[in-house]
Amino acid sequence: MIAISVFVLLLFAYSLVSQRLERTILTAPMVFTIAGMVTYALLPLLRDVSMNASFFLHLAELGLVMLLFTDASRTELTVLRSMENLPARLLSTGLLLTILLGAVAARLVFPQLSVWEAGILGAILAPTDAGLGQVVVASPRVPVRVRQALNVEAGLNDGLSVPFLLFFIALAAARTEIGKASLPHFVAQQLGLGVLLGAVIGLMGGWSLAAACRRAWIAGPFLQIAVVTLPLLCLLVSEVLDASMFIAAFVAGLAVQVRFKDAGVHSAEFAEEWGQLINLSVFFLFGMGVVRNGSQFGWIFWVYAVISLTIVRMLPVALALIGTRLSAASVLFMGWFGPRGLASIVLGLVYLEQELHLPGESTMRLAVMVTVALSIFAHGLSAVPGISLYERKVTSLPAAAPEHQEAVLAATASGRG
Hints:
18 helices; Na+/H+ antiporter like fold; globular; mainly alpha; 75% helix
């Protein structure tokens, strides 16, 4: 109750100055993570109370399910059809290489991990978080093409990382006595059933919403509520059928657009308000967990965190962007601003929920915590100065550079109008 009271008071205080803080280097995830750290450190009563891992997991699951559905529902499917699009490059070549390189780095830094444990760690830390880099994706000083690519990538790579995580978990479970089901059965149930469930809920939900709107049966305030119930339905039904709620929510967000094009608008309205509340509470609890486990953060975990945020992220991005004619400054900028946040926290909890008790579980848990903690502050503090430096580099590029393409097209369209 003490921690909840502190969080509510902080949420009220932050809301009062949120507009002003947007002009500073302090991001909301940074503020609430620090608050969680300070709360746990300064309140002795909390040290004797075990954190409710189940509550933390369900809260984080709810946040990611809502986020996956929202991002998928407002993503145009045509964005992924052409490999010339930057998001398609980042979500295909970039994501696959990130998971692979993350696993290789994990094996080198933590030789005690098995191949499948390294794969699990690589998949957990592969997705990026647009919330941590909101300053970047919302800044008009960053070329439209670059910020849209980063935003779409962060919106979809968490959902695309889930199948890889579940696949590596299944392989790891199949090699222990704890694995209760065969690999094919696990994959079919978690992945196949998740896709089927999401498609059914998304298509039927979209058809029902479109029909109700067409007949003017649904009141305005309830339209948003009706859309938001779809990812919640994915979560609840997935729990009963033992399917992947994340894959179901992601597929439902894509499928609902088939019959109801405005789903993304209404789900985004909810995510920007109530979804933000859930996400900030996760960062607050994460901050408490960081202090609680801080004594176990050896130097080797910081080494892996640095490698994960630099080489593991930036090299795949550079390879994925070959042929786009983007400048070195743009490639470096996009490579650096791939922060790890909510998705990695939730995927880490998803792994722990499986209760496989693998030998390297403690190593993976601490590596995820250190990497996310470092990312929250490194990317948050570098966002404003990074944008300023990048803006100067882009300004010096020739007019024909790809970074200026959208500006030229916008000026041409304006002149014609």
